[in-house]
Structure formats: C-alpha cells, structure tokens
Amino acid sequence: MKQQRLTFLHTNDSHSSFEQELRLGSLIRRRRAELRAEGVPVLLVDGGDHVDMSVLECMATDGQLNLDLHAALAYDAAGVGNNELMRFSLERVRELSLSSQVPWLLANLREQDGSLIGGMRESLLLDAGGVQVGFVGITDQVGTTYEEFVGLQNTDTVTTVREIATNLRAAGADLIVVLSHAGLNQDLALAPQWTGLVDVIVGAHTHDALHEPQLESGVWIVQAGAYARLLGELHLELDLDAPAGQKIVTATGQLLPVEADEAPDAELAAIYQLAVAHVEKKMSEVLTTLEAPLSHDRLIQELATTMREFYGVELGMMFGAVAVEGFPAGPVTVGDVLRNLQSLVNVSKIEFQGQQLLGLLYERNDPAYYARIKFGNGIRPKSGVPVGRIFFDGLTWDEQEGAITNVRVNGEPLEHDRWYTVGGGEHLAHVETLYYPSLAGAKLLHVDDYYYVKDAFVAYLRQSNVQTEQEVSS
C-alpha cells in the first residue's frame, strides 16, 4: 500500500470582504507553512464569488484588486461564481479570466459556440507531492439565466463532469476534485451521479459552514461559510495503490475561524492600501452640497426622478431597498453615494398598465410588502434590507383614510387600460423579486446591463441640484 497525505486549504464566497481577507491571508500562509513543514503537500483553492461589485474597492478597480490578492496568496485554482459571471460585462469576464494568474475553472457554462469563456479552463491536473490531482470547475447555471441574459450556453453538468473526470483519470489523476459554485443542495444531489469518478467536492454559493467533511455516496463534500471568516482544511490519508475512486482511506477536516486579533498579511495589506489610495481619489469628488438632511424616502423619490429623466419617459419609479439610508446635511461625494446605494440594480425601461400603477399605490402602504426583508438578487447589504416603499415621479394622487383618488400622470387622469412607459430599476419588472402583487405583468422593454441606479444617480447629481424636504416644503 503506497500511502500519502494531502491537505486542501479551501475558501469560498469572500464577497470582497477585503479587510477580513487580509487576516485570512495571514492564517492561510501560516497553516500552509506549518503543514508543509510536517511534510504534507498542500493545495489552496477557492470556490468562487471572490468578487462583489457592491464593494467600492472591487468596483473601482473593476475586479483587479481581487485578482491581485489571489495571485499574492498563490492560490492553485479558483471556481467561478455568479458574482464573477453576472456583475461584469461578458467582455470584462473574459478579460479577468485571461489576466488572472490563478486558473479559473468552469466546465458547465460556455460561449455560444461551445468554446471556453475567455481564459477559463474546464479542468486542471496538478502534482501535489507525487499525488496527481485533477480539478473540474462547475457553477450554478441558474436555470437558463446565462443563456437568456448573458449570451452563454449551458452544458449538462453531470455528463460534462463525467467526461472530464474520465479524461483526467486517463491522464493519470489519482484524485478528482470538483470546485463547485452550485450550492450544497446541488452538490448533495450531484454526488451520487459521480460515485467512483469524483472524490471531493469543494463547495460554495450557499455559504454553508461544514465543520466536518460530509460523505455522500462516496464523495466528500466541504464548504467554508462566507465573507472570509473561516478557513477550511480537508486532510486526506491516501492509498495510491487502491482503485480509482477508492484511494481516500480517511478524510478529516475543520473550519478555522479568522480571529479578530489575527495580524493582516503584510503583502496583501500593501496591495490593498495601494488600491484604497486609488479608490479614495476617485471617490472624493463632491457631487452636491445639501443644506439640510435628505431622508431615505426623499432620496428614493429623487431616484425615481433620476430614472424618469435618464430615459425621458412618462414616469419614474424606484423602491426603497436601493439605498440603505438618507444623507446628512453637507457635501455628498461619489463615495457617499456608492456606499449608500450598495445594491446592484440595473437601470431599465419598463411598461406598466394603469391598473397596475393604481394597485401599487395601495400596496406601497402595506407593511406585508414594504417591510419584507429582501436577500440576494443583487440587493445589498447581503444581510438583508426591507424591500421598502415604491416612489414615483410624474404620478400624483390624493389619499385619505386608505382611499386613493384623483390619480394623474403628468396632470392627465390615469387610464386603467393604457400602458405607461416607466424608467426604473430592473427589479421592478419581476414580482418574484420585490413581492408587490401589482408588479405582475410588467413588460421589461430595455435593460442597461451593468449600469446601475447608483451610476445614474452620480451622473444626475453632477448636473442637478437635489432639494431636501425642508426646501420642498418651504
């Protein structure tokens, strides 16, 4: 029996938690050095969603800071998550994958002609102290989302991994590891279909903290939470003489917390501070000066105006979750706007029927809708935020004791059967995203992909004077 030990250090879903990552980097270097000093080969991998464009430093560097940090830590391979794939233009995704010093692995999503995306690889074969480790990358295909909205092509995940794993075995792989950004439930469902072919799934996407490796149908599954708070370790005892799919004798693991007093890694800190200096220079531009505080409600109203003017249409509409809070009196900088309007909501042109608009006027007062906490779909912070009330520009009405009357569009009576063109955020076209029943049936006419409400508001402020509530009422 030819015995060998091997350890995987694994991370996932850091979401550009940069200051936390500096401490995580210090822990990674220390644990890798300790294990190698014991003669244990170590591979460092990431499961994806390392980027998050709601974070200023990531957005202002267009993801380059993330690449630089991964390269400095010498990751061996990285999976590709929805935040890598959905928050940049496809051209930028290609550029990032081509320039990354760490291989990006993705096999079950491709260009329309079937080729790999940019510089991505479907697989990788690495030597770890004499152990040949084959890697395959997959991601959650989110149904047909990437095919419909990004211009990519799904492949069958089960078949694709089987074929690649078979080829890697033929090339000499002792172990097959899937870097999966599909989520724990999908990983558990996929494992039985890969028994004997895949040995380990390094998971991501669902932010599950698996403090011990989970065995499903002969496949070991691990995942290390999110936001760079934990470092995963998977320790394998191998019998390299055993048949394929049976070489793991024992598998143990743990999640190490990144303690608050962990010193930041010096090299990563230097890279980060250089990026921060670059970002602050861009973020310090003063867009306007408020004579009095601007409440959250008034801000959302201004965003509705921004959307209407952006498209030059009949109405503007916006929902409260786009911004975390209002603004205090005083100067408002680019950085202030981007820190407050964290959510990633594409600017869009939508059609609503008059009867839908009337329904929304009633529903916007119902806490069952506006107070409901929203997670995901680009809404930030990721800890959740209320959906918030819907505000309009160009729509007026009288309201008394719960009754809505005298509804007008730019001074003309609302026509229930007429379709009105509205500038707003893309989420307003999807009832399943924002929950207001009267959103159902909206027609999404145009989406300015990767141009967010926050970007439009920065441009709006550069050429407009925002009125505070005090100024409006005076």
UniProtKB/TrEMBL annotation:
Q: Name one Pfam family in it.
A: 5_nucleotid_C
Q: Which residues form the Calcineurin-like phosphoesterase domain?
A: 7-208
The biological process GO terms on file are: nucleotide catabolic process
Cross-referenced SUPFAM superfamilies: 5'-nucleotidase (syn. UDP-sugar hydrolase), C-terminal domain, Metallo-dependent phosphatases
Q: Does the keyword Nucleotide-binding apply?
A: yes
Q: Name one GO molecular function term.
A: hydrolase activity
Its keywords, alphabetically, are: Hydrolase, Nucleotide-binding, Signal
**Does the entry feature the keyword Transcription regulation, yes or no?**
no
5'-Nucleotidase C-terminal domain: which residues? 297-428
The Swiss-Prot or TrEMBL record describes its family as follows: Belongs to the 5'-nucleotidase family.
The protein depicted here goes by the name 5'-nucleotidase
Per the UniProt record, the source organism is Tumebacillus permanentifrigoris
